[in-house]
Design goal:
mainly alpha; globular; disordered N terminus; 0% strand; 19 helices
């Protein structure tokens, strides 16, 4: 009975699934919903660690508070003490990957809510980080394969290899935009974790990735399910949700990641109350994590509670400016506020909030383009055509010629945007 495992890569795998969700389109998840079963979350975070030593525990606390530099330092101490442990390598790999993805704005869940991200440019990655990621990935896979050659049924090695493959698939999908290579690695991750569960059904962390894959494959259209079956993938939405609850309640290193995945899928299911409760709990447990606080505001907005979303964004902005969150991407909160105000028909407020996004020189270029386009649409809605045209021209000057944003800008230049 081993509910522990390698952390963070489960959370990374969530992003791969998000990409898959967009690839199969939002319309694929509509009708024929069965009544939701009531599962209960245990109010606990991580209680079981594979490396039961203080630096690993401290590293996770820093990691989930988005204090990546401190997390990496702790994981490095643990790795130095356990150089041949693939779990220690995966912890380090996770910290380095997430630090870089947070820096470039790749962890914003709103980025994956629209199909435009599939056509966006590759993120500008630090070459040194890219080299570190490759070195650590290769190192972990070698350690895992060496153990599996000695004992093919080594559940820890199988789980760890699945975790490394999950990390690799995320990097290839989100950073390199190598979708098919990423899918192959993701399939390998699932197969490894399914084998773990065959050998030890109580290894709850393995239900994290298997649960996510089950939910996704169980949600897509029949034609996509047939294609997935060719590579040995099947799925059930109900089983996926059940597995995620079991992973979340298992107390292993994937427990927090499972809750994040649950919140994302429950949002997709329009079960907003449950998703909000989960994210609210996570934000309380990790009060320095800007992205969790941001996701709470995003959930209020997605649920149709615009006034509560606007109040939460304002609270978030106030706390961020006061230094509550380390290295906060405040521009993301301004963009979320703009979207919420837009939904409440506060056109002037939304235009101002979109403009605030543009004041951050290090903001993700794609986010800036989305904000510029949104600002132009608000100007059009306010009958400020000249200002709107300037925004659309700015989008065309900076964006790819065949991107969805550029297409929208060209369309609005021909005919003013209307709400």
């Amino acid at each position: 009975m081993k509910p522990y495992g390698s952390s963070g890569r489960s959370r990374v795998a969530v992003l791969v699934v998000l990409a898959f969700l967009v690839l199969t389109s939002a319309t694929s998840f509509a009708a024929k919903k069965k009544p939701a079963k009531n599962y209960q979350l245990v109010p606990q975070q991580i209680t079981h660690f594979h490396l039961d030593e203080p630096h690993t525990k401290a590293g996770f606390e820093y990691f989930y508070n988005a204090e990546y530099d401190q997390a990496i330092k702790e994981f490095q101490v643990a790795l130095d003490a356990h150089p041949d442990d693939p779990f220690a390598v995966n912890h380090m790999l996770t910290g380095i990957m997430f630090k870089e993805m947070y820096r470039i704005g790749a962890l914003d869940s709103e980025l994956y809510a629209k199909e435009g991200f599939l056509h966006s440019k590759q993120f500008p990655i630090d070459p040194k980080v890219r080299e570190q990621v490759k070195e650590l990935t290769d190192r972990a896979l070698k350690l895992e394969d060496d153990r599996l050659k000695k004992n093919p049924d080594d559940v820890d090695a199988l789980y760890s290899r699945g975790s490394t493959r999950g990390l690799k698939s995320t990097w290839m999908a989100l950073i390199d935009k190598a979708w098919f290579s990423a899918l192959r690695s993701a399939v390998g991750a699932r197969h490894d974790h399914e084998r773990v569960l065959e050998l030890d059904p109580n290894y709850t962390d393995a239900k994290m990735v298997v649960g996510m894959h089950n939910y996704v494959i169980g949600s897509v259209p029949w034609a996509v399910k047939v294609a997935a079956s060719v590579v040995g993938l099947s799925g059930s939405r109900e089983k996926g949700i059940q597995y995620l609850y079991e992973a979340a309640n298992g107390g292993g290193e994937a427990a927090v990641d499972a809750k994040i995945a649950l919140a994302l899928f429950l949002r997709r299911e329009q079960r907003y109350k449950e998703a909000i409760e989960i994210v609210n709990g996570l934000a309380a447990s990790y009060p320095r994590n800007f992205l969790l606080a941001l996701e709470l505001a995003n959930l209020y907005n997605a649920s149709g509670n615009g006034p509560e979303a606007i109040a939460t964004y304002h609270k978030l902005l106030k706390e961020a400016e006061a230094g509550t969150f380390p290295n906060a991407h405040i521009e993301m909160a301004w963009y979320g506020l703009a979207e919420a105000q837009r939904g409440q028909r506060d056109l002037a407020g939304a235009a101002l909030a979109y403009e605030k996004v543009l004041e951050f020189p290090k903001a993700d270029p794609d986010l800036k383009l989305r904000a510029t386009l949104g600002q132009g649409e608000m100007y059009d809605a306010m009958q400020k055509r000249a200002d709107a045209v300037k925004c659309y021209q700015a989008v065309l000057a900076a964006d790819e010629k065949d991107s969805p944003r550029a297409d929208e800008a060209r369309k609005h230049l021909k005919e003013p945007y209307r709400m």
